[in-house]
């Protein structure tokens, strides 16, 4: 096997599992531990992974403050968002008081909501419009409007949200990481998400598989406080932190 092919294979394994040991790689690839250690050193120098004594870990994808517009994000992982949204809608029961966070996956969820006995609240302008078009009992919080996500954010919106007690909250996230938790680029939007989770009996983060092992500037919750609904999961270490539902498995 050529060096470059071996490097790529090792990097793929590390990225999939997040952390692996030299012994694990040696056993799986049928290579000596000394060869694995040399390859990890080379990959570390190339900035592909981070080597530590006895193994290596994947480099986290740290997102910046830039966030694509709502319309651009709608087209990304579209089928996966549809599957996640369809399942999430089935969790709504009669007499639930539901908070639906602004976001593209939570927006997709509204397409499948049919329970007319529940009450809904959102901080998404497009979400509120979709809810009332379906004839559902819906409220929208007041506050500052964020143009890129069409979300209502800020202190006024947060104070408004504190007056309510939800049975369920469905939240969007830009990144999910074991140590950093659920993250997002915007401080004011993070505050709304955090309050909604704290004011809900049960909270669900709706996120496709590309959101895992990504970190954005602001953490709004540790993993354990929310269940995760995703399309599929490649790193089973996340299962040790919270309940995860894979809708495509």
- Overall mean pLDDT score? 89
CATH topology of the largest domain: Rossmann fold
Strand content: 25-35%
> The biggest beta sheet, please?
7 strands, parallel
Gross morphology is elongated
Number-wise, the strands total 17
State the secondary-structure class.
alpha/beta
Number of separate structural domains: 2
What gap, in angstroms, lies between the N and C termini? 33 Å
CATH superfamily of the largest domain: Translation initiation factor eif-2b, domain 2
Record the strand order, biggest sheet: 7-6-5-10-13-16-17
Assembly context of the chains: single chain
- The CATH class name of the largest domain reads Alpha Beta
- Taking pLDDT < 50 over at least 5 consecutive residues as the criterion, the unreliable ranges are none
Please render the helix and strand layout as text.
Elements: H1 3-17, E1 19-21, H2 22-29, H3 33-45, E2 49-52, E3 55-58, E4 61-62, H4 70-74, H5 78-89, E5 97-100, H6 104-110, E6 119-122, H7 125-133, E7 137-140, E8 144-146, E9 151-153, H8 154-161, E10 166-172, E11 175-177, E12 181-184, H9 187-198, E13 200-206, E14 214-215, E15 218-221, E16 227-230, E17 244-246
What would your notes on this structure say?
The protein has 249 residues and is α/β, with parallel strands linked by helices. It has 2 domains: 3-59, Arc Repressor Mutant, subunit A (Orthogonal Bundle), CATH 1.10.10.10; 70-246, Translation initiation factor eif-2b, domain 2 (Rossmann fold, 3-Layer(aba) Sandwich). The protein has 9 helices and 17 strands. It has helices at residues 3-17, 22-29, 33-45, 70-74, 78-89, 104-110, 125-133, 154-161, 187-198; strands at residues 19-21, 49-52, 55-58, 61-62, 97-100, 119-122, 137-140, 144-146, 151-153, 166-172, 175-177, 181-184, 200-206, 214-215, 218-221, 227-230, 244-246.
